[in-house]
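Course assignment 3, question 2. Fill in each field.
Student: A.L.
Task: Predict the tertiary structure for the chain below.
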Amino acid sequence: MRILISIITLFFLFACSNNEQKQNVRAEEELKAEYMAKGDSITNLTQAELLKNVSQAMQQGGPGYAIEYCNLRALALKDSLSKAHNCEIRRISTKYRNPVDMAQTESETRQLNNYETAFQNNEKLMAQVYMFDDRIEYYKPIMLAKDACLKCHGEPGKDIAEATMVKINERYPQDLATGFALNDLRGAWKVTFKK
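Answer field:
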């Protein structure tokens, strides 16, 4: 009789544990979906604001002026949006213009490598959400989608005017962000949410 009671008790403990694990997995998936939506919304807004401001700078003074704008104001724009959304917004890339946009963590390097490998293999690039003990990280690929982007990120001497290259070299002496073609992978957005 004791053996039967022990078996029944173990069965119920296992069943309860299994249900708890399923609930935890479901809760984590729901949380990931919530942060995927938040990350999409924040990066869409940030990208739109950045493109709007760069477009205005291009209209006011051409690509050289847009380089000046990006150098002086793009980080401030991301910082103000980060504060407004209670997160940290970054652009990261292996071919960065501003060294601030260089991968700084193992997870950033890994995600950029994953995107670059997928891009080279003609695979669809998707936003990703990763859960950590103290934070949630959202990543979204940045594609070079507009011809106007080539005026600062395309081929020097072909897409980028000599005067613009002078400005790039003045402001970003270690620039790596040229040589792109339309629809190339430019880098990734990263949004970090504190738990």
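Instructor remarks: The mean pLDDT is 88. DSSP finds four helices and four strands in the chain.
Grade: pending
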